[in-house]
Structure formats: C-alpha cells, structure tokens
Amino acid sequence: MSDVAAHGRAEEDRDVEPGTLLVATPGLSDPNFRRTVVYVIEHRGEGTLGVVLNRPSDVSVQEVLPAWAPHTTRPRAVFVGGPVDAKTALCLAAFRPGHDPATIGGVVAVRGPVALVDLDSNPAELAPRLRGLRVFAGYSGWNSGQLAGEIGRGDWILVPALPDDVLASGSGDLWGRVLRRQGMPLALLSTFPADVAAN
Q: pTM here?
C-alpha cells in the first residue's frame, strides 16, 4: 500500500474510538452485519474490536454463565457479538453514577460508565455498582486498515454511543433508534425498509 493510500485509510477511521457506534448503512448486505449497531471496545493501530448490540440469541445467560444471569439486563439472553470466535464470551456493563470503572477491579474501562467485565471476577461484588450488563458470544474484529476501507466504501456510519445502547433489549429497533436521534439527514435512513422488495 502506498503512503498516500495508507494516509487515506487512516483518515477514514480517525473518528473511531472506544465508545463509538458503527451503524450499518442500508446498503451493507453482509448477513453478519446487516442493520447492526456495533459498539467499539478497542481501536488501535493493529485493528478494531467491538460487539454487535442488537442480535439476541436463543441461549440464556443462565445456561452458560449462571452466576452472572441474575445481574444481566433483560432479556437475559446471550447476544451475538459478531462472527469472530463465537465460543468466546465478552461482557459489557454500565456502572451507576458515582462509580468510576477505571478505579474498580475486575473491569476494564471503555468509555464513561461503560466497561468490559472480567467474567472470572465475583458478580456479587460488582452487581451493586451496576445499572446493567450484557453478555456477548463472539465479537466483531477488523485488521489494521480494514475498517477504514469499509468506512470509506460507505458501509458504516460513525456516531457516539449512549450507555443505554449497551443495555438495549434487542426486541426494539436499536438500528432505527440510533439513526433517528442523529437528526437530519441521517434520521431519514431509519425509514429505509428492511426488505426493499416488500416496500
């Protein structure tokens, strides 16, 4: 890759950072990401890691992580975080006001009140500090330059996340809700039909 091309790619993802949402554009047809909202957990030179927020599975947290199940935000399902390493469980939590994740053991602060939880930590110790948490199977990952290329192609819209996005139920239309709160013209995309043939 030439220096000019590499610089162009770097420019495409300069606004990506932990706590950013990647909202799939209506034209993104990859079944792994169609109409998804991805929460970025980590973004570095080597690549980007995030989880899809709006894909609940049929597996309950009780089946795989029973100690965490009572503390999980409803629905207490494992969400599909992405197509990479589906046997890996990740957990995101939103902390109550007055609790700084950067000062709490067993978690890694992501942005604001949102943190990545070490599932080997004691849920009973963390639970009183949490507004809620969500467990994900697998994750979404991009190698260096890959996400920049997809953003440049128009596959993703970058918007700031709200802590409640991490706890979204999956039964509502998080994709549409996130787009609508951006105001015009992005709000218009929220009316794009899921199936154009049915329009």
A: 0.88
